[in-house]
Design a protein that fits this description.
It is found in: Cell membrane; Membrane. By secondary structure, the chain is an all-alpha fold. 77% of the residues lie in helices and 0% in strands. The longest helix has 30 residues.
Amino acid sequence: MSHQGVVAACSDVVTMIDRSVRLARRNVDTLFVSLLLPLLMMALFVYVFGGAINTGTEYVNYVVPGILLLTTGYGASSTAMVVADDMHNGMIDRLRSLPIHSFAVLTGHVVASVARNATSTAIVIVASLAMGFRPNGGVVDWLAAIGLLLLYVVALSWLAAGLGVIAKSVESASTLSFFMLFLPYLSSAFVQPESMPSWLRPISEHQPITPVIETVRSLLIGTPMENNGRVALAWCCGLLLFSVVLATSLYRRRSRR
């Protein structure tokens, strides 16, 4: 690609990012739910279930990393619905007549999703500190945890964008992205896998969310890292590569129809 082509592509991406961010700000209901629901979930687990769950440490310290992953799932799932709306409201037909790079549209939605998730994650962290969360990680540990969460959010947002492309409607996009909300409940987010039935424990221990949660938990509160860091990076990088290729190829195919 020539220098002018690179500049044009970057301009397209910036334009679509600006559009997606403005759309996110206008969709007050979705924004409100993405910010409020994780707070309600954290309050529910800390104040209602926390006293009955033994994790060997203060439950609020144990559960916050899981809530952070749950927060990103809620934020990413809304990306699928926004992309599906673009695919079915005539927006893609209008873009066909313009010299806009195909990947710019999805990139705009993904960046808006990351920004929305960053805001909700920051709110959850502040609220968790008020609820008694007491991390002992240093600056480097926090930066590593934030970097891993960012990588996970980007990968999940690209996957959600791909689901939005193939969805038949906005409602079906919500259904397709449901697993993003459900999978954390089968991980080590809220209880230790050792407490689960023997048939469920392998699912909890060998799914992608558990090593990410355990890595964040290790960085922030000092639990044993073991090999969770390497496994979490492998899962996130693999998911990101798969999701980018899937989403962009599906979008090109749909936009040519």
